[in-house]
Amino acid sequence: MFIHTKKLGAASQAGQFFDTSGFDPVTGLYTEAFLEQQLGKEIARAKRQNSTLSLATVHIEEFAEVSQRFGPSATDLALKELARRLKRACRGSDFAVRLASDDFLLVLPECGLGEVKLVLNRLGALEMNCAGRKVSLEYTTGWVDYQPGDLPADLLKRATQILHLYENAAKESYSSTRVPH
User: Fold this and answer.
1) CB of 159 closer than 8 Å to CB of 57
2) Domains of the chain: which residue ranges?
3) Which of 58, 162, 144 has its CA nearest to residue 101?
4) E-strand spans in the chain?
5) What's residue 149's pLDDT?
6) Cβ–Cβ contacts within 10 Å for residue 174, how many?
7) CB neighbours (10 Å) of residue 140?
8) pLDDT digits (tens, 9 = 90+) for 42-58
9) Residue 160 contacts by C-beta under 8 Å, 6 or more apart in sequence?
10) In whole angstroms, how large is the CA radius of gyration of the chain?
């Protein structure tokens, strides 16, 4: 397990209205419903070919605050840009998933630790103009590797735990810096 924080440009929050077709209507990325179907196939392939399989996580920091400050159109714009970058970072066999409003996952077959870092480094910084100002959005990345014997639910649970670590760390950071009035 690895966690890494990086700056990403502007922000956006679309609501959590996920299409049952397997595609998120805002980003065009796959949804968790699609992931649940595909992950078993990817694990079977990794077992059969005795190859690696990694899940890379991306969590957008302070996503709700940016949405409140700049509105839903800016949020959608940032989500679409992040989705474009996730797709661009993917190799032919990889695919990107939107798990929640601020949580994303890359499924990376035949991808070990060194390759995961290269894929995530391709995301770069995302900066946008919102209300005439340049806005940067921070994001955190991490990853987990398939371990022999993992079921799809096991692998997804470990990836989700990383995403919850992000949320908890952000809450603790916020609450420890709050000053009562």
Assistant:
1) yes
2) 2-177
3) 58
4) 2-9, 30-31, 53-60, 95-100, 103-109, 127-130, 133-145
5) 92
6) 11
7) 21
8) 999 999 999 999 999 99
9) 99
10) 16
Predicted pLDDT of residue 69 = 87
Q: Does domain 2-177 have CATH number 3.30.70.270?
A: yes
Question: Is there a contact between 12 and 155 (Cβ–Cβ < 8 Å)?
Answer: no
Q: What is the pLDDT of residues 53-108, one digit of tens each?
A: 999 999 988 888 888 988 888 888 889 989 999 999 999 999 999 999 899 999 99
What per-residue confidence (pLDDT) applies to 74? 84
Which residues face 54 on adjacent strands?
Answer: 108, 145
Task: State phi, psi for 64 to the nearest 5 degrees.
Answer: -65, -40
The residue to which tokens 């910084």 are assigned: 125
CA atoms within 13 A on the CB side of 3: 14
- What does pTM read for this prediction? 0.80
Residue 133: is it exposed, middle or buried by C-beta count within 10 angstroms (0-12/13-18/19+)?
exposed
